[in-house]
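Notes, Module 5: Reading structure tokens.

Key idea: the token line is not a picture. It is a compressed description, and you learn to read it the same way you learned to read a sequence, by spotting repeated patterns. We will look at two proteins. The first is printed below with its tokens.
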Amino acid sequence: MLEWMSAVCMLVLVATFWPVLKRLLEACTSDTEQTNKPVQVQQEGPPPATPAAAAPKPPGPQGPGAAQAQAPQLAFICKPSALANYLLQHCKSFCRADSTAAPAWSWRSFPALQTLFGALWPHESTVHFVRDHLQLTDDGLVALDWAVGGGGASGGAHHIKRRRTSSNSTSPILLIIPNSFGKITRNVLKLCEAALSHGYLPVVFNRRSQNSTPLSTVKLQQFGDPADLREAVRYIRYRQPAGRLYAVSESTGSGLLLSYLGECGSSSYVTAAACLSPIFRCQSWFESGPSWPFNWALVLYQKICLSRYRTALSEVIHTDSLFSSSSLRSMEEVLFCQAGLKGVQVEGAWEAYWERNDPLRDVDEVAIPVLCVCSRDDPVRGESQATLPLELFESNPHFFLLLSAQGGHCGFSMSEEDPMLWSHQALLEFFRATTDFFAAEERSKLAARRRGLSGAGKSFRHRSVSTCKRQPVCSHNIHAIYNWQRSYTR
């Protein structure tokens, strides 16, 4: 086993050696002037009434082509709106280009090393998890890991008392959706630490069979099927009805979050959401795949995770074809696009699968602010001009793109001195700013309503008191939506 792991590490190092050497040679012959470029604030269309004075605009054109030609260190791309201007004024990480720049001589300037460090490097954390197993309508199981702080470095989770089924806590909840392969990365752990330090209650959503979640039914979750996540969100709202709910996804897990937000629309229960290094054009990404070392590592990891259920899965799929697959597309086709145990390809099944699972299929129905944090040098997503739907951010007022020049895939580790990743700081500031913005909007509407009612005479005095009564945070009758007596924990 040790020899096998050594071989894997050697292959990964060999795969990353040439890009690192190339970047070192370029760094030796170039100046570090790229790190001093200003922030680009790109807002298409006519400017809104409220000026965006938090970040200066560089001279020159501001269209999508200019964004790629100038290649600023940090760009904020969105449709002009009052919320966008408010974010620029109150989110310092949106306007600090120096916070996203790593020195040319540092390993943090290499996207492959950034990606591997954030995904594979061990992290000594005091965060522990208390697990809830949630039984779904079809008797399947998903796991919710509630992050708690304190205790030793290992084994502390077994000594923490189980939380109550419901709580009157008003602390905000941060729902974290890891990548679609179920890997809990170093960056997810650091996000839990940052969320706890800012007063959030972090909870990690684990799909069926992932991260030691039992597979109670011979059914795996499709890439963009939000049915399981919808039930998990309702359960979270049942347990914490008084706290606001925010959602964060990482890498390919953003496909599930965007699918959920699009299908549920204004009934998503979520106040605001963020996607870290999302994969937008998922079908083409599965067809072309990432560069071969990352494709090989992801395929191998998925095979290892599914191997423990090989006997059970053999009842519905052709496991020999599954474990002999050499690409992400072939594995996805065997799992969800083949009929019978002989692995018969159904004509048009691949296209029909992505019609049901494309994360952007219902993107126009998203009704909450969504921040997407990406980097231009992402080695997993691919070239930014072909993989980022810039037209989405330029036309949809609910989507905001924070595009950095460096950071790799879910890396964004720019400094050894700062304990919090820049991407985590950006999304936490985004959540705070959007909450404050909507609270101010509600206060202004309430004040206008009170002014209107106060001028109507004494006959409406008592009616104004009842009309302006504060509504509860969660007005949905969750007890009528679902019978949670069937859920259990362990």
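Here is the second protein, with the sequence above and the tokens below, as before.
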Amino acid sequence: MAPPSSVSDRIGPGANAGAGESSLRFRRAPAADADAGESSGGWRENGVAGETHPATTIPQQEQREMLCYRASAPAHRRVKESPLSSDAIFRQSHAGLLNLCIVVLIAVNSRLIIENLMKYGLLIRAGFWFSARSVGDWPLLMCCLTLPIFPLAALVAEKLIQRKLIGEHVVILLYIIITTSVILYPVVVILKCDSAVLSGFVLMFLASIMWLKLVSYAHTNYDIRVLSRSIEKGATHVNSIDPENIKDPTFNSLVYFMLAPTLCYQPSYPRTTFIRKGWVIRQIVKCLVFTGLMGFIVEQYINPIVKNSKHPLKGNFLNAIERVLKLSIPTLYVWLCMFYCFFHLWLNILAELLRFGDREFYKDWWNAKTVEEPVHKWIIRHIYFPCIRNGLSKGVAILISFLVSAVFHEICIAVPCHIFKFWAFFGIMFQIPLIFLTRYLQDKFKNIMVGNMIFWFFFSILGQPMCVLLYYHDVMNRQAQANR
């Protein structure tokens, strides 16, 4: 076998001239070139005549590194931004920083847990889970059991108009009476019985859900009737409409809608083929664990903080800010646990048991760039776009949407607490100027994180803790005046 040729021979006749022209041109290392050249032949002499062994190849990555890190190779070749600069930060992976945040959260919260246990001891009481007063609220239980009367009344109204026994204006009047009654009925019962806050909240929550469902039921069936009449007149092509979505309402469709994890009615829904029993059991266990975690945080952290605080609007301003900031972390944890338990675990459990196919119960609201993004599809479907179609501006449509949301937030909180201070109402309506603020900052700074940070600040750091303090102190003041 011939001895290996020189590096200059392998590179070519113009290599030496090129090397003299510029020190920035890449040149192979002799050792690397020799090995590479020998390995290309496949065999190498081992110093013994006639004996050959497979050549030891150098990986291509290592060859490239040897080329790039020669002293004469340029270390700076193009314009680059620092990884944390504003132009490059969103193109980088931040998994390491996320891990750091998780480690810091674990360390900080571990210290808070130890500090809280050393100061207060274990504060979990059975009364949080089983209240004798809540169990004894029989009028509220009877009110809850009689709520299905209103959906049945809505079905009767639909049957009457199907048979043309009543007109369109009459059925609209009946729906106004039904939907108004489904809210006023539990409000009167709660206020008359002076019920416990927890049981009153559950009843108002169920009544509000039923109101939203009945409005969707009435609106959708009205639209189906309008669509059917246009089909009969030939104004709308049948081929462009799914016949499953323009069926007349039935008792089975109403019952399924009232149980289904959705607020938007339609005659038929996408269904899954079977129920995953093992999956349901796992979700139920998760739901119980996170519910217990919520109870622990409320009893161990939130209660001591609010009990040791003053009314945020009547005390020292700095003390109020300190209490709000101290309360922000546990209330955020409780809210996130509640969101995960209800919107993810419970709604998925219910959907699995009913074989309900569409499981998009929420979107990535945590990435919201403006305050208006986390809006429920019920509001979009039955309030916002109907307002737009009737000639209202987008601003007025947004105002009406938030107004409806604010009213129901206030009813669900104020009625069980027997206090009408409109804290929840103003908290929701305050989001309207924040919408324009986040839009303005979004356009000004061209940065999606600005709006998202404002959303999180007002949502978790300022809004929820302030409402907790306001309602707690108002409830305590009311109970103190009642005991006198």
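Summary for the second protein:
- The chain has 18 helices and two strands.
- The chain has a mean pLDDT of 79.
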